[in-house]
Design brief:
The structure is a single chain. By secondary structure, the protein is mainly beta. It is built from two helices and ten strands. Strands 3-2-6-7-8-9 form a six-stranded antiparallel sheet, with no helix packed on it. Strands 4-5-1-10 form a four-stranded mixed sheet, with no helix packed on it. The longest helix is centred in the first third of the chain and has 15 residues. The radius of gyration is 19 Å and the shape is globular. The N and C termini lie far apart (about 70 Å).
């Protein structure tokens, strides 16, 4: 009986250990963008014309631009539209190369419907199995620097 109780105790310790989920890994390799028009209106609001059907994400790898399409992924288009804790719709763009961790930088293109194509470049740092975005440039302008801001990458773009 003592061995059985010891077994249950040991098993409960192993089962209670937390393993990082894919969602936790994604949050550290993604960029959150609030898209506003010149009047300050959210372009991702359901009543606006930007939505998941007219937004496309591309990855640039070895100089080749490729539309992100991974039907096996939870986010097959490489981005998702969600709400922040302030209830504003934002675009969550994933730093694509981070999954392979083969380069320090990743460059993505994001086509925002009729608003045109923009470039998002991320610098990442990997420690062990953990990768996080350290800096983000949007159309060549530094928008996030983890050495200055300790939060996850989030910034506003005016279209």
């Amino acid at each position: 009986m003592k061995k059985f109780i010891l077994f249950l105790f040991t098993a409960s310790i192993f089962l209670s250990c937390n393993k990082k989920t894919d969602e936790e890994d994604l949050s550290s390799t993604s960029v959150t963008i609030l898209l506003l028009n010149q009047q300050g209106q959210n372009l991702l609001n359901p009543s606006s014309n930007l939505n998941e059907y007219n937004i496309q994400a591309f990855i640039i790898k070895n100089g080749v631009e490729t539309l992100f399409n991974d039907p096996t992924s939870r986010h097959p288009k490489g981005f998702l539209i969600g709400k922040t804790n302030t209830n504003q719709e934002t675009l969550l763009l994933f730093s694509f190369d981070a999954f392979g961790k083969d380069t320090e930088f990743s460059t993505s293109l994001i086509k925002l419907g009729s608003y045109g194509m923009d470039t998002v470049k991320c610098q990442r740092a990997t420690t062990g199995n953990y990768t996080r975005v350290m800096k983000v440039w949007y159309n060549g302008i530094l928008k996030f620097d983890r050495s200055v801001e300790k939060s996850d990458p989030i910034f506003t773009i005016i279209k």
